[in-house]
Design brief:
It is a single chain. By secondary structure, the chain is an alpha/beta fold. It has 11 helices and 12 strands. A 5-stranded parallel sheet has the order 9-8-10-11-12, with helices on both faces. It has a 3-stranded parallel sheet with strand order 3-4-5. The chain has a two-stranded antiparallel sheet with strand order 1-2. α2 links the parallel β4 and β5. α3 packs antiparallel against α4. The longest helix is centred in the middle third of the chain and has 19 residues. It is globular.
């Protein structure tokens, strides 16, 4: 996210300190990074900062539905300090993308002078003040609603999970080794909230560890992690490097599913979270016998695919679905 600076302002005769977001300098109308156009994908694993700089220098960056409506690209654009131009956003339905401030995005796309067809802005018509106001609102919203910690807090509030007594927490996160951006972002938020009290089964190494002896290529990195990092890991790789000791601890303490299941049977955990329930549901049918649905969280980050097991999981857990069509029969 762009940096903020503290300024003193006079409001109703009183001097107050406020944090002002520093908007990146804009030199391009639209980012040249276009989803689906392979020729614009010019960055590699080691070039994330350059990738974000290219986004940050544009007034707008195109994004759209891919496999599903929600994807990491939207948040890469916003966190780079740029306004997403979301193609066909009105077709997303009433429930999908419920955390995105759609009214701000619609208003920004409707500013006179903005031309999506030829990716240009007529600056004689363009209201820069309106754009800056909307971008400030978007970044403020993102900081207070879209960070990994804020999204995890939303989940915990939804299930009425108490955060007052940290010594009583023992949270189990069922992860999986392959990349899944929703799973990985929620792991990031949970780690920052619970720290030592979070225990991760099948922790993804790419979140914690990376040799720094030299700059590695994507091929070398894939060989090291034994996984292809989707989107080259932008936004999530190594974001838990300060918690590498927890990775080592959990790898030692939770080496097998049998140990996890025994811990569940003995009610060792105060909360169980499945990071990607359809792709990894280890010990779920053990957990449902020993925990109330309000203490089992099932996160479903899959695209709009039909899966009859969704309704079964939802009977025994509090279910959080990424892609929510207006007609749920399409996915159940």
């Amino acid at each position: 996210m762009p940096n903020t600076i503290s300024r003193q302002v006079l409001i109703n005769g009183t001097v107050l300190s406020v944090n002002q977001t520093c908007l990146p300098k804009k030199t391009k109308d639209f980012s040249e990074l276009i989803p689906g156009k392979i020729q614009t994908y010019k960055f590699r694993f080691e070039n994330e900062l350059d990738y974000r700089r290219l986004y940050s220098t544009a007034y707008y960056a195109v994004t759209m539905k891919k496999g599903g409506w929600d994807c990491n690209r939207h948040y890469e654009i916003i966190s780079s300090g740029t306004m997403p131009f979301f193609d066909k956003l009105n077709e997303a339905g009433d429930h999908t993308l419920s955390f995105l401030p759609k009214s701000i995005l619609y208003a920004a796309q409707a500013i006179p002078g903005v031309n999506r067809d030829n990716l240009s802005i007529d600056h004689k018509l363009f209201d820069l003040n309106q754009y800056n106001l909307l971008l400030h609102r978007l970044l403020y919203y993102a900081k207070h609603r879209l960070t990994t910690v804020k999204l995890v807090e939303y989940v915990l509030k939804t299930i009425n999970y108490p955060l007052n007594y940290t010594k009583d927490h023992s949270v189990l996160f069922i992860s999986r080794y392959p990349v899944d951006y929703l799973k990985d972002f929620m792991l990031h938020g949970l780690t920052h909230i619970f720290e030592e009290n979070l225990h991760v089964f099948q922790a993804p190494r790419y979140m914690y560890q990376y040799p720094i002896s030299k700059m590695w290529t994507l091929e070398e990195t894939t060989d090291f992690y034994k996984e292809q990092l989707y989107g080259m890991g932008y936004g999530f790789k190594l974001t838990l490097n300060n918690y590498a000791h927890l990775y080592d601890r959990d790898k030692k303490e939770l080496p097998s599913l049998a140990i996890v299941e025994n811990n569940i049977r003995s009610k060792k955990y105060s909360l169980i979270v499945y990071g990607s329930i359809n792709r990894e549901h280890s010990a779920f049918f053990v957990a449902k016998e020993h925990y109330e649905p309000s203490r089992i969280v099932a996160l479903d980050g899959d695209d709009e695919l039909k899966d009859v097991l969704r309704s079964e999981y939802a009977k025994h857990a509090t279910y959080f679905l990424r892609e929510i069509p207006d007609n749920c029969n399409l996915i159940l």
